[in-house]
Amino acid sequence: MSVAVAAAPSRWKSVSLWVVRGLLALAFAAAGAAKLYGVPMLVEKFEHIGLGQWFRYFTGSLELLGAVLILLPPVAAFGGVLLSCIMVGATISHLFVIGGSPVPALVLLTLSAIVAYAKRSQFALLASAP
Predict the structure, then answer these.
(1) How far apart (Å, rounded) are the C-alpha atoms in residues 56 and 120?
(2) Rg, the chain, Cα only
(3) Of the N and C termini of the chain, which has fewer Cβ atoms inside 10 Å?
(4) CA angle 15, 17, 20 (to 5 degrees)
């Protein structure tokens, strides 16, 4: 009975992490696809940023890549780090360039960082590989 009790928190943690990973994948896949498709509002935002539309394509591609990586168990930590980096850039962009609330970017940053932290053992495996 103690084994079942001890396994329960681990199972909930695992299920919760999968839910977070799934939600992040959906959010970033939608955002990345919208950027690549050229939704007019996003075209304007990236025009305002001033780096050119190539940056919109680049960001959208990275978001799609991150959405895929975060769902793949062996590389979920790398997806979490990639998406966290994107959200750091989005937060800075909202604060200093385009305006608007940085809260959605901060929420996605936090969730992505949680995934990266929860799967941090993947980094150790990479470091110990011959």
Answers:
(1) 29
(2) 17
(3) C
(4) 110
